[in-house]
Design brief:
Enolase-like, domain 1, 27 strands, five-stranded parallel β-sheet, alpha/beta, 3 domains, 12 helices, FAD/NAD(P)-binding domain
């Protein structure tokens, strides 16, 4: 029987997870990963370190050095863009982005892990020089180089990426202003925790303009100012960190079904076309709590989806009962953990949520040390049946064991009372 050919389009978290799992499932398969970048696959959350200047070459944040993929017998084709899929003949047309040379690849199974692209509002002046997004290593390098010769910068957005960019610029003594449409970390934490983070951000010297948006960007060739609430604010650099949307253009050229939130998949990460799978930021996510389709462009979920897609592409059986977001960030000297839903994301999926704070007496006595030497504010989110559907923690340090405990409470559908009892010291 001939070796099966598995092609993975995309070299991010989902794509690499798919390739690795496919290789483990089928040691003889020909596994090929297509990457639009010239650099070895790297950890995108670490791009803020490039902006800060603590990382200068992609190898320092590489997920896998090229030799590691070679040792796994996974072929990585760099500078290779997939621009057409023939689902009947099972072929992918590719273009070398450095030479424009085209090449066709055959596949027996295909994994789409093409990720997402940054959201940039359609506003006047968005095409001026020194307006950036942070999607690639080269983006980060350009921001680093440009910001180093300028005195001020504006960061648009208030999610983890936007905050990490602002913190990196602040560390370089660049006067930084954040333009925030609503509040800080809106989809991760509750409003009172958001207010605490805002205090830390402003204490670091960053100006935050809340409940506002950029109306226009002005300048002759380079950015010179932005207009906000009718007023001009001088600036030399703008970085948009306002989120991403799924890259579905390749799938839309085929019979593959694309839904409201991305490429539609079933519980095996199969698309509507046989032998084609999808994973990562281009894909709709099935939420574990609500059992509804949504969009969660998060690395931990991309890795899980890629693992399932790669396993099934290689002919094994793996499925999901839904994905649960778990996110941990360290920003402005504060550890932020968000697991499952906050009240806002729950209500967006039709779940009426209740929010309560884990009593300090429970945290202090807990054998899981949720407070102890490093105090943390811990929120518990429950549905109308008092089932735990989310949790958040804000503090100086939160251990992996603590995060796992909160994650487990949601996965096991614990009631809040049972969780509090579980936290108490064993007698």
């Amino acid at each position: 029987m001939p070796e099966q050919k598995i092609v993975v389009i995309g070299s991010g978290t989902a794509g690499l997870a798919a390739a690795n799992t496919a290789r483990k499932a089928d040691a003889k398969a020909e596994v090929t990963v297509l990457s639009t970048e010239k650099h070895p696959p790297y950890c995108k959350p670490s791009l803020a370190c490039v902006v800060r200047g603590t990382v200068s070459v992609p190898e320092e944040i590489a997920i896998y050095p090229s030799r590691t993929l070679e040792s796994k017998n996974i072929r990585l084709l760099a500078n290779r863009e997939a621009f057409a899929i023939n689902t009947k003949e099972k072929t992918v047309k590719t273009r070398d982005t450095s030479t424009n040379r085209e090449r066709q690849l055959d596949y027996d199974a295909l994994v789409l892990a093409v990720g997402g692209h940054d959201l940039v509002p359609s506003i006047e002046g968005a095409n001026l020089a020194n307006v950036y997004t942070l999607q690639t290593f080269d983006d980060a390098l350009r921001i680093y180089e440009t910001a180093g010769s300028e005195k001020s910068a504006i960061v648009v957005g208030a999610g983890p990426i936007a905050l990490s960019i602002a913190e990196s610029l602040m560390k370089r003594k660049i006067e930084t202003t954040m333009i925030v449409r609503s509040r800080v970390l809106r989809t991760l934490i509750e409003p009172d925790l958001s207010a605490k983070m805002l205090e830390r951000i402003e204490a670091a010297g960053i100006t935050c303009l809340l409940n506002t948006e950029i109306e226009a960007i002005g300048g002759s060739r380079n950015v010179e100012y932005v207009t906000v609430s009718g007023k001009k604010i001088a600036t030399s650099v703008i970085v948009f960190g306002t989120g991403i949307r799924p890259s579905t253009e390749l799938a839309e050229q085929t019979e593959i079904e694309v839904g409201k939130f991305g490429i539609q998949v079933d519980d095996h990460m199969r698309t509507s076309v046989p032998d084609i799978y999808s994973a990562g930021d281009c894909t709709e996510t099935i939420d574990f709590v609500a059992k509804k389709r949504t969009y969660m462009p998060i690395g931990s979920i991309a890795a899980q989806e890629g693992t399932i897609a790669g396993a099934n592409a290689a002919g094994t059986e793996m499925r999901t009962d839904g994905f649960l977001r778990i996110q941990a960030d360290n920003l402005f000297g504060t550890e932020i953990t968000s697991i499952g839903h906050n009240s806002e994301t729950a209500r967006a999926l039709g779940i009426e949520a209740n929010v309560s704070e884990l009593p300090s007496c429970v945290r202090a006595k807990s054998h899981y040390c949720l407070a102890g030497k490093y105090p943390a504010t811990v929120k518990i989110i429950t549905d109308q049946k008092d089932i735990v559907i989310g949790s958040q923690a804000l503090g100086r340090r939160i251990a992996t064991q603590e995060r796992f405990m909160l994650f487990r409470a949601i996965r096991e559908r614990m009631e809040k009372e049972d969780l509090v009892r579980f936290l108490q010291p064993h007698k």
